[in-house]
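Page 42, continued from yesterday. The earlier attempt failed because a stray header line got pasted into the input along with the sequence. Redoing it now with the clean sequence only.
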Amino acid sequence: MALRLYDTKTATVRDFEPLEEGRVSLYYCGATVQGRPHVGHVRSAVAFDILVRWLEHSGYDVLSVRNVTDIDDKILEKSAASFAPDFAAEPDYPEQEPWFALAYRFEQAFHEAYDALGVRRPRYEPRATGHMTEMFTLVQRLLDAGHAYPAADGSGDVYFDVRSWPSYGELTRQRVEDMQDAPDADPRGKRDPRDFALWKGHKDGEPETASWDSPWGRGRPGWHLECSAMSTKYLGSTFDIHGGGLDLRFPHHENELAQSAGAGDGFARYWLHNGMVTFQGEKMSKSLGNTVSPEEMLAAARPVAVRYFLGQAQYRSQLDYRPSSLVEAEAAVERVETFLARADGGAGVTHEGIVPQAFTAAMDDDLNVPAALAVLHETVRAGNTALDSGDGEAATARAQEVAAMSSVLGLLDVPEPEAAEGGPAHAALSSLVETLLAERAEAKAQKDFARADAIRDQLTEVGVQIEDSRDGARWVLTRASQKEAIHG
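This time it went through. Structure tokens are written below.
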């Protein structure tokens, strides 16, 4: 079965056929770096990371682009707040932090969160502030085509004329009359309150550094313009996939599509949107006090378990967080890790194996990760059964499949915390464990089985899994409490 993906624009699951055989061009919306990442940001990054990994596993060369919006109304507002007398009320923002410094600081926070979860960097990660020339060109094309106009109030704003584009609303299947007003600029200079800003004239009180000279006066770009200019610069006027969170469909992606198509670009051929993260069935909200940050998740469980949780649902579906979610994810990851540790035995299990046909069928079915995970865990069970029966050949084959599936899902690329193999903490732990295992072996040789069992129980209690074999005892650290085992 060929890969099939749900296209938001047509509201159908379609066979995926790239523009160029063997190559996929993908753009998905990254961060507006006004603050630290929230769990919705990282869920989206994990979802598109899995898509890229599956495309690559399927033999495609993937040209991926994820933007950074580093100039925006909210960035300027939060920078301005840091200069205000009551800036201390905003502990995340140092005193007197320029907008570009604030944006860069939070851009690094996003990278830290992505890296902690094994989300690979895209081929290109352009910043909006580095693409003014491309934006000027796009605005001029829209003016020439009659789909944009300079504001008549002398503000220096330039707007997209939504009434001039008959297809406006096609992505979200809305009529213009039913849409909300565009809140991105003062409506006095607009022909229609739903017209959105392509260019925003510089205003009194805004930093001079947050404006650029343009043919329409000094100012800065509108949010929607930025993505259209950057995506087509790196991927061409027509490309395969445009993605992002479900909350970006309107107005952001609707406006991107209208202005790009209005300028004559084919733009995205498939639109993919990932679902939101909720807290026990409710929308996460600071006012409700039910938000969970990536930092809180990473403090509660190992990064690989956090990634497992964030990637375990079908990307289009809602992902619900509950207090037990990370415990369940940790247990699931531990089953996989324990089997791979048992099956390795020095055989050198790698992730280069072939995934089972059922796993391929699940991933080709609009990235049905829940079904793919079911195949993964069934293969783990089959591998353990083979080990228990002494069928080493079958166990190794299943381990190769498990490693290959885990690699596709990104579970093998998540960096471990301090106890990672090869680090100083792991070396110290290894020395302690090997000493206890030597004591255990001596106790067994002297038929002091009570002492041997006590040592095994002691190791198990702190998260060290022992596997006895004819060649001696091996150990693996699998529990989320590994830090406590080292520092406790």
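Notes: The chain has 15 helices and 15 strands.
Reminder to self: strip header lines before submitting.
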